[in-house]
Amino acid sequence: MTETTQLRLTEIFYSIQGESAAAGRPCVFVRLSRCNLRCTWCDTTYSFKGGDQSSFDAVLEEIAGYGCNLVEITGGEPLLQEAVLPFMTRLCDEGYEVLIETSGSLDISPIDDRVCVIMDFKAPGSGMVDKNLWSNVDALQSKDELKFVLLDRADFDWAVETCRERELFGRVKDVHFSPVHGVLDPSLLAEWILEEKLPVRLNLQVHKFLGVE
Question: Where along this sequence does the record place binding of Mg(2+) (predicted)?
Answer without folding.
Answer: 44
